[in-house]
Amino acid sequence: MLAIETKQLSKSFWKNNVVKQIDLQVEKGEILGFLGRNGAGKSTFINMLTGILPPSSGSYALLGVQGPNNAVKKEIGVMPDYSSLYGSMTALKHLRYLSEVSGKKVSQSRAMDVLQLVGLEAHANKKAGKFSFGMKKKLAIAQAIVHDPQLIFLDEPTSGLDAESVIQIHRLIQRLHQQGKTIFMTSHNLDEVEKICSRIAIMKDGKIRRVGTMDELRAYYQSTITVTMKHAPIAATDLATLEPWLKQVGAQLEMEASHFTIQVESEQKIAEIIRALGSYKIDIYRVDVDEPSLEEIFLEE
Ligand SMILES: Nc1ncnc2c1ncn2[C@@H]1O[C@H](COP(=O)(O)OP(=O)(O)OP(=O)(O)O)[C@@H](O)[C@H]1O
User: Fold this and answer.
1) How far is CA 201 from CA 6, 29, 41, 223, in A?
2) I need a surface site. Which of 43, 65, 87, 248 has the fewest CB within 10 A?
3) Is 23 a residue whose pLDDT tops 90?
4) Domains contained in the chain, CATH given
5) What's phi and psi for 288, nearest 5 deg?
6) In this structure, which residue's CA is closest to atom 7 in ligand 1?
7) Which one, of 102, 98, 100, lies nearest residue 90 by Cα?
8) Which of 15, 43, 50, 156 to mutate to test ligand 1, by most ligand atoms within 8 A of the CB atom?
9) Which residue puts its alpha carbon closest to atom 13 of ligand 1?
10) Which ligand 1 atom sits nearest the alpha carbon of residue 36?
C-alpha cells in the first residue's frame, strides 16, 4: 500500500509557482529522505500533505485516503516547528495535550516512554520555554510520534543536535522503521540521508528531479566513475601509445609514475582499460573506483 501518493500537486503564492506538478509515490514502511537547497519548496510541499496549506491544484492521498481528511489525522505524525511549542507547558503536558488535540489521547506512561526514547525523561516536568534548542527539537520529535502514527513527517530532525543526540534520534528512526512506520524526513545532512533513508528524493525549483535508492541514483550518475589504477612501471615506448589511447577512452586523465586516475562513462570502459594494460604486459596492483557520493549527485542537480 502507498503511504503517500501525490498527483500533479502544485502550490503557487500569487504568481510564484513554488511546487510544480509533483507526482510522488512513497511505499508504506519506507524512510524517504527529502533533499533540496534552501527555498526549493520542500516545506511548502510537506505543508500541503500535512494540511497546513491548501494545494493550488493537483491532489494527494495519505495511507490510501484522499486528502485533506480528518479521518486519517490520527495516523499521521507531524514534527511541529520547535518555535510553536507552548513555553509554559511541561514536556509531559505537551505530549498529553497535543495527542488529545490530534484525536488519539495517550496515557501518562506512554508519554513518559516517548520522552525516554528522545532522551528527555529527566526533563518531563520542566516547561518547554526553559528548554534549549536541542531539547525543543527532541520534544517536537516526541510530539510527532507519541500517538503511534503510521506515517511520520520529520523536518530536519537532527539539525542542531549534539553528536550523542544525533545517534539517539537515528536509532529511534530505525526503530520506527522496524515497526513498519513510514517516515518522510527532510535533512540538509547528506551523510545522514545516505545512511538511514531507504530512498531519496531531490527537489529543485519546485520539482522533484530524481527519486530512487542510493544505488539507483548512483547508476544514473555513473557517467562520472573515477578510477585510479596502481600499476607496474610503464616503458616510455609503451606510454607513447597508451597515454593518447587512454585520453580517448576516458576524461580527466592524470598520469603519475606508479598510478593514473581517469574518469570513464561505464564499467565496460574499466574492463577495456584493464585488458589494454594486460596486452602491454603491465601488471595492475590495485583498482580503486570512486562512486559518486550523494553530495556529488546533489550538487549536480
Ligand atoms: N507563505 C508564503 N508566501 C509566499 N511565498 C512563500 C510562502 N511560503 C514559502 N514561500 C516561498 O516559496 C519558496 C519555497 O519555500 P519553502 O519554505 O517551501 O522552501 P524549502 O525547500 O523548505 O527551504 P528550506 O530548506 O530553507 O526550509 C521560497 O521562495 C519562499 O519564499
Assistant:
1) 13, 16, 13, 20
2) 248
3) yes
4) 2-84+142-212 (3.40.50.300), 223-300 (3.30.70.980)
5) -110, 130
6) 13
7) 98
8) 43
9) 39
10) 21
| pLDDT score, position 301 | 62
Q: How many angstroms does the Cα of residue 38 sit away from the middle of ligand 1?
A: 8
Contact 13 CB / ligand 1 (< 6 Å): yes
Under 8 Å between Cβ of 3 and 155:
no
Return all residues near 295 (Cβ < 8 A) that are at least 6 apart. Answer: 190
For residue 295, the surrounding DSSP H or E stretch is helix 294-300
Q: Are 53 and 44 in contact (CB under 8 A)?
A: yes
Mean pLDDT estimate for the chain: 89
Tell how far the Cα of 204 is from the centroid of ligand 1, in angstroms: 12
* Cβ atoms of residues 141 and 79 within 8 Å: yes
18 lines ligand 1 (CB under 6 A): yes
φ, ψ at 26 (rounded to 5°): -120, 120
| Mean pLDDT in residue range 190-208 | 90
Please write the tens of the pLDDT for every residue from 174-188: 999 999 999 999 988
pTM, full prediction: 0.78
What confidence tens digit (pLDDT) does each residue in 128-179 have? Answer: 888 888 888 889 999 999 999 999 999 999 988 889 889 988 999 999 999 9
43 Cβ closer than 6 Å to some ligand 1 atom: yes
Pocket test for ligand 1, best of 13, 20, 22, 79 (most atoms within 8 A of CB): 13
Length of the chain: 301
Closest Cα to residue 213, out of 22, 32, 45, 3? Answer: 32
